[in-house]
Specification:
Layout: H1 2-28, H2 31-51, H3 61-82, H4 88-109, H5 117-124, H6 131-152, H7 173-192
Helix pairs in contact: 1-2, 1-7, 2-4, 2-7, 3-4, 6-7
Length: 194
C-alpha cells in the first residue's frame, strides 16, 4: 500500500510540474502553439488531480462527473480543431484521444461507474473498465511515448546547439516534447490502474 501511495504522489508531482510548464509555454506562445499549450496544461493538471491517492482524498461522485464533463468539453474542442487533418491538426487528434481517455478513466473510477472500479481504487487499484479499450489506449500511449522519445534523441553530435541561445524557457521545443513524453508516461501509469 505504501508503494502505491508513493507512486501516486510521484505521478501527481510529475503531472503538476508538466502542467505548470505548459502554463509557462502558454505565456510565450502564439496562435496554434498557445492553444496546444493550454490543452496540455489542462491535461497535466487534470491528470495530477485524478492521480491524488484515494487513501488520502476520495473524490465524491460529482467530482468524477466534473472530470468527465471538463474533459468531454475538451474532447469536443479537440474534435473541432482536428477536422483539418495532419500537421498541427494531427496534434489536435492526440488531444482528442487524451481527452477521451480522461473521460473514460473518470467514468471508470467513479463510485458505481463501469465495473464499480472506484471501490478497488480506494483499497488499492483493482482492475475495472473495458479491457479491450484500456489495452488499446495503453498501446496508443506506448507507441506515442516511444515515437516522441526517439525524437528527443540528437541525430548527430554536431547538430545539437549547446545552451539553447537566447530562447525563452516557454519556447523551447525540446522541453515541450519532453512534457508530452512525461504526460504520455503518466497516462500509461494511470491506465494501468484502471
Amino acid at each position: 500500500m505504501h508503494g502505491q501511495v508513493m507512486s501516486g504522489w510521484l505521478l501527481v508531482a510529475l503531472c503538476a510540474a508538466t502542467g505548470a510548464y505548459c502554463l509557462l509555454r502558454l505565456r510565450s506562445g502564439r496562435g496554434e502553439h498557445r492553444e496546444g499549450a493550454a490543452g496540455e496544461a489542462l491535461m497535466g493538471f487534470g491528470m495530477a488531480a485524478m492521480a491524488v491517492p484515494a487513501a488520502l482524498l476520495a473524490p465524491p461522485v460529482w467530482g468524477w462527473m466534473l472530470y468527465a464533463a471538463v474533459f468531454g468539453g475538451a474532447a469536443l474542442r479537440a474534435l473541432w480543431q482536428a477536422r483539418g487533418g495532419g500537421g498541427v491538426h494531427g496534434h489536435h487528434a492526440h488531444h482528442l484521444v487524451g481527452s477521451l481517455a480522461m473521460v473514460y478513466m473518470a467514468l471508470v473510477m467513479a463510485p458505481g461507474g463501469a465495473s464499480s472500479a472506484h471501490a478497488g481504487h480506494v483499497a488499492g487499484y483493482a482492475a475495472g473498465g473495458v479491457p479491450l479499450l484500456t489495452g488499446a489506449l495503453l498501446l496508443y500511449y506506448a507507441a506515442f511515448v516511444l515515437r516522441s522519445g526517439v525524437r528527443l534523441m540528437p541525430v548527430a553530435a554536431g547538430t545539437v546547439e549547446a545552451g539553447g541561445g537566447g530562447i525563452a524557457w516557454g519556447a523551447r521545443p525540446e522541453l515541450a516534447l519532453a512534457c508530452r513524453v512525461s504526460m504520455g508516461i503518466g497516462m500509461i501509469a494511470m491506465l494501468l490502474t484502471v
